[in-house]
Amino acid sequence: MKAIDIIRNEHRALAAVLRALEATIADLRDGRRPPDFRLLAAMIDYIVRVPEEVHHPKEDGVFFPHIRAACPDAVPIIDELEHQHHRGREHVLQLAMSLIHFQAVGAAAQESFCAAAERYVAFSWTHIEMEERQLLPLLSDRLAPAAWAEIDAAFAANADPWRGTADEFERLFSRITALVPAPLGLGDRRSGLASRIT
Ligand SMILES: [Fe+2]
Ligand SMILES: [Fe+2]
């Protein structure tokens, strides 16, 4: 796959986790289900290991520098997206810490966890939508073939965002499918996000 397809595919995998997190927050608040700490930890582990440790660093390190050099009109968008990546790390740290606190003290910390999860989810939708709606449509033919070759090679080295390097995410996504039925869960991997942003 080319880098743009890989980026969209990684966004859709994160979108599935975001929808599952939204559904889980709603269930907790309505008292429909007790907290499943193992599932919550698996979702946050995914957020740390795929978007935070692989996807965003590769955008910052390989993708954005080429766009910055070739597309002056995209520079304000890149500035904002890089700023969001930086802020995203703070959101994820707060999310992880609030889950630990929730697990440690129980119901008294449920609302603070739900609020941290909502902040992260809202932040992530804004970020994905900005990249998909404002940045990617600008690019088409504007980067040189050599730049695309470097970007494609960098993203092609990423593990499958639905499976991981050792199928470690398969269980998480099968549980997400059960938790949030299609199209709200995994749905169609190619068009799942489109329903969210169109
Ligand atoms: Fe990003
Ligand atoms: Fe992205």
UniProtKB/TrEMBL annotation:
CDD domains: Hr-like (cd12108)
Limits of the Hemerythrin-like domain: 3-139
Gene3D superfamilies: nmb1532 protein domain like
Pfam families the UniProt entry points to: Hemerythrin (PF01814)
Source superkingdom: Bacteria
Name of the protein in its database record: Hemerythrin domain-containing protein
